[in-house]
Amino acid sequence: MSAAKAQLHLVHGASYTQREAAIAASLARLDGNSAATDKNVVILEGLPDGQDILQATDLLHISRIAPGCFCCIGNLSLRVTLNRALRQKPANIYLGIASDAHLDKLLLTLQGPAYTNLLEINSTSVLSY
């Protein structure tokens, strides 16, 4: 029997703070039972421009990656961070990226052979600037 795939929620656009706030709101909407027992991971591209909205807990792991197009930098920092996150067997992974300039290439990576049995792209949210 194979393990359940992590649900990937992709949030892009707007400012770092707006992406983090949107992810925090989505986490708050999770079913109370699953939110209390399931591991969730947040990967945010960019650096905070104020006080962090999300705080790490035993069930919420947060990673921040320096800004830069994941496609153009070869996806290395994203793949390393994502692979580490997947070892924790999270129920949900929220990926907050600044731009959708190369979103199609990023999605190809996330849907590629390395992640096909580990991730299911659940939703994509576009925030306006």
Notable traits:
4 helices; 5 strands; 30% helix; five-stranded parallel beta sheet; alpha/beta; 129 residues; Rossmann fold
Helix coverage percent = 25-40%
What is the C-alpha radius of gyration, as a whole number of Å? 14 Å
Q: Name the shape in a single word.
A: globular
Strand content: 25-35%
Class of secondary structure makeup: alpha/beta
The largest pleated sheet is described as: 5 strands, parallel
CATH class: Alpha Beta
SSE string: EHHEEHEHE
Assign the CATH topology.
Rossmann fold
The helix count comes to 4
Instruction: Provide the domain count.
Output: 1
Strand order of the largest sheet: 3-2-4-1-5
Note poorly predicted spans: none
At CATH level 2, the architecture is 3-Layer(aba) Sandwich
Q: How would you characterize this protein structure?
A:
It is built from four helices and five strands. Strands 3-2-4-1-5 form a five-stranded parallel beta sheet, sandwiched between helices. With 129 residues, it is α/β, with parallel strands linked by helices. It has a single domain, classed as Rossmann fold. It is globular. Helix content is 30%, strand content 27%. This is GTPase.
Short description:
The chain is α/β, with parallel strands linked by helices and about 130 residues long. About 30% of the residues lie in helices and about 25% in strands.
